[in-house]
Amino acid sequence: LQFTEEKLGQAEKTELDAHFENLLARADCTKNWTEKILRQTEVLLQPNPSARVEEFLYEKLDRKVPSRVTNGELLAQYMTEAASDFGPGTPYGKTLIKVGETQRRLGAAEREFIHSASINFLTPLRNFLEGDWRTISKERRILQNRRLDLDACKARLKKAKAAEAKAAVTL
């Protein structure tokens, strides 16, 4: 009732401290930017949306994500197979073997980068959103409920005093 009356402008609302309001605004801003950075980093590390969904499901089910071959590693595999078809002794075959080995190393470096970024960058962001932010939200709801209770009590006290004053005047 107090919340509804406040929204309709029929009840007084106790304002929170300006410094506290600033902290709440900063917390909201931190949460929003953390979510955006987390999502965009996931897109950067895994551009394929269906693969991201699959990884998300594995993560939520607490299962190990199956290891995927990176595009560089796949290209290296194709180059190596092509080199064996053309013959490793031919100039084209030798070139394919060299470039294929370089692509394999690049693919392995990409895999290591993705793994490292996931552990060292994405995990702390997720921990903030799933841990600290939930705590902040829970405490914020509790504070809001306590403030509404306080304002409701103030309104009842004000009505009781007004009724008491009116009764004193009529006597």
TrEMBL record:
Pfam families linked to this entry: BAR
Gene Ontology cellular-component terms listed: cytoplasm; membrane
Keywords: Coiled coil, Cytoplasm
SMART domains assigned to the protein according to its UniProt record, in alphabetical order: BAR
Keyword Methyltransferase included in the entry's annotation: no
The keyword Protein biosynthesis appears for this protein: no
Intracellular or extracellular location(s): Cytoplasm
Biological processes per GO annotation: membrane organization
InterPro entries linked: AH/BAR_dom_sf, BAR_dom, Endophilin_SH3RF
Residue ranges constituting the BAR domain according to the UniProt record: 5-171
Family of this protein: Belongs to the endophilin family.
Protein name per UniProt: SHLB2 protein
